[in-house]
Predict the structure.
Amino acid sequence: MAKDERDILEVLYDELDFIEKGGYGRSVRTPWQPKSAFQESLTCINYADPERTRPCGECHLIDFVSQEHQHKEVPCHFIPLNERGETVEALELEEDQAKLEQAVKDWLYARIRKIEEERSLQPGS
């Protein structure tokens, strides 16, 4: 469904690297403004595009969003990150950046592991 030409595994690894290097830390220019998970990293197909010219439906992350949330303004914020169904949207409301980042990292590790396992089972791998 996604039209993003990048490899999903590479996208997830890049997001994980971004978070682990403190990518969602507060900006020195706007420390009062929190950064938005997924949206403010290279993972987002509209990164650095204030006009948001590409629809979120073209992003790989849309495949992890339930049908009912795919038409939200920021659908990737509705990806269930854990067994409790916590989402970026819900965790941002808690205003606990460390908890949010850990939940996203745990989700990334799990998705990466699953994709790697699936690919290792494919013929010709």
Remarks:
- Helices lie at 8-20, 88-94, 97-121.
- The first helix runs from residue 8 to 20.
